[in-house]
Amino acid sequence: MVGVPTTDTTTAIDNQRAGTLTPGEPAAAIQPVIAAIPAFNEARFIGSVVLHARQFVDLVLVIDDGSTDQTAAIAEAAGAIVLRHETNTGKGGALNSAFTRARRLEARCLVLIDGDGQHRVEDISPDLGAWGIGIADGAI
Fold first, then answer.
1. Nearest alpha-carbon partner for 88 in 107, 108, 71, 111
2. What is the DSSP string of 4-18?
């Protein structure tokens, strides 16, 4: 399920849907399972959270909500696609960005996790089974 996400992954998904993949462009899941991580000054933890989450989803999306530390650079180095807010918009603004991008990518499901390691990333896997076979529309 896990590929190596790059900043071009969202473009690859769009091109794959349109049937216009260019030679060498990575193929991506048509309806990816996405983990979204709102983050504000989480440089201390974000790398390990991203690396761990990539084991369970197709794409990790970090919403850097105006961080003044190295959150965005570390998240990208760990393999996440990073959306950057110039200023801090709060968790609601970060979540709105995550929902907007997930809709654009026609995600099969979107899993929200914290950037500080508060949520156990390995708990993602059991929840995906219920969504994949239509038992649940969401879980908290």
1. 71
2. ---TTHHHHHHHHHH
The domain in which residue 43 lies consists of: 9-17+29-123
CATH code (residue 63):
3.40.50.1100
Helix (H) or strand (E) holding 92: helix 90-104
Q: How sure is the predictor about 30, in pLDDT bands with cuts at 50, 70 and 90?
A: confident
Written as one string, the DSSP assignment of 17-66 is HHT-PPTTPPP--SS-EEEEEEESS-TTTHHHHHHHHTTT-SEEEEEEES
Inside any domain, residue 138: no
How many domains are contained in the chain?
1
Measure the CA–CA gap between 7 and 112, rounded to whole angstroms: 20
**83-92 pLDDT, tens per residue?**
999 999 999 9
Going by their DSSP bridges, the two strands 109-112 and 33-39 should be labelled as parallel
103 falls within a domain: yes
